[in-house]
């Protein structure tokens, strides 16, 4: 069984073990032109502020360099991430986390003129209650030439999975492609794990420059990557978890 990783400490599988994975090593690369047919718009649907950078920080840089239109959708404001913290209250997080994402996008080199950003405003940890509503929300903004990117339907976080299901329904209705991206799966899965849909997996290669900008962007998420000494709480995203999300590729299920 994969765990539901809401508010759990992500020790997980070491990066070294992933680097030795036979299955991961066999995954074929894919280029931007294969992910998005000519004339497409990319729609990145992030359950929480930071998921768009953790999963697609490299992809967004490539989109910007080729002037490919981008619509970014933040499903929640991520207000439930720091349970037990007296400093990172839901009220403070509702302001801070979207601001952290905005700073991260700047660090990626994205100009505000290069993307549109929608804040859907659904409650953190409760996206499953609003799946049908989220599907209709997405459909109201989708275009026939869209390609959607979101978290994997079996990622191990309830919001990630509910967001994916809403995106699947929207894509089926609009008949547009969907690309799913594992985020928490890096932490709970085994490097040879048969639960990962390896047959659908592809690697989007990132050069050193793109990796460096993504790494710098992730550091903008102060509420997630730093401990809270006042409440004696570890980081929501410990260093080992962040490390696994900074590989020389982004894994996508197509």
From TrEMBL:
GO-annotated molecular function: hydrolase activity, acting on carbon-nitrogen (but not peptide) bonds, in linear amides
InterPro entries, per database record: GlcNAc_PI_deacetylase-related, LmbE-like_dom_sf
Coiled-coil intervals, chain numbering: none
Gene3D superfamilies: LmbE-like
Name of this chain's protein: Acetylglucosaminylphosphatidylinositol deacetylase
Signal peptide: none
């Amino acid at each position: 069984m994969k765990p539901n990783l809401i508010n759990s400490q992500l020790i997980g599988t070491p990066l070294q073990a992933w680097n030795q994975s036979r299955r991961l090593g066999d995954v074929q690369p894919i280029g931007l032109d294969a992910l998005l047919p000519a004339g497409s718009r990319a729609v990145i649907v992030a359950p929480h502020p930071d998921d768009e950078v953790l999963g697609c920080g490299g992809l967004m840089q490539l989109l910007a360099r080729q002037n490919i239109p981008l619509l970014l959708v933040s499903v929640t404001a991520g207000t439930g991430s720091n349970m037990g913290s007296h400093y990172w209250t839901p009220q403070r997080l509702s302001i801070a986390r979207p601001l952290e994402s905005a700073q991260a996008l700047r660090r990626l080199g994205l100009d505000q003129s290069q993307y549109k950003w929608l804040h859907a405003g659904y409650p953190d940890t409760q996206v499953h209650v609003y799946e049908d509503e989220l599907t209709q929300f997405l459909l109201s903004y989708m275009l026939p030439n869209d390609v959607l990117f979101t978290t994997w339907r079996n990622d191990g976080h309830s919001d990630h999975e509910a967001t994916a299901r809403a995106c699947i329904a929207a894509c089926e209705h609009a008949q547009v492609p969907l690309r799913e991206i594992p985020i928490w799966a890096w932490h709970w899965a085994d490097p040879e794990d048969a639960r990962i849909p390896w047959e659908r997996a592809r690697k989007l290669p990132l050069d050193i420059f793109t990796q460096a900008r993504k790494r710098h962007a992730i550091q903008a998420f102060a509420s997630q990557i730093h401990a809270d000494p006042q409440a004696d709480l570890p980081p929501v995203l410990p260093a080992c978890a962040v490390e696994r999300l900074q590989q020389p590729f982004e894994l996508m299920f197509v």
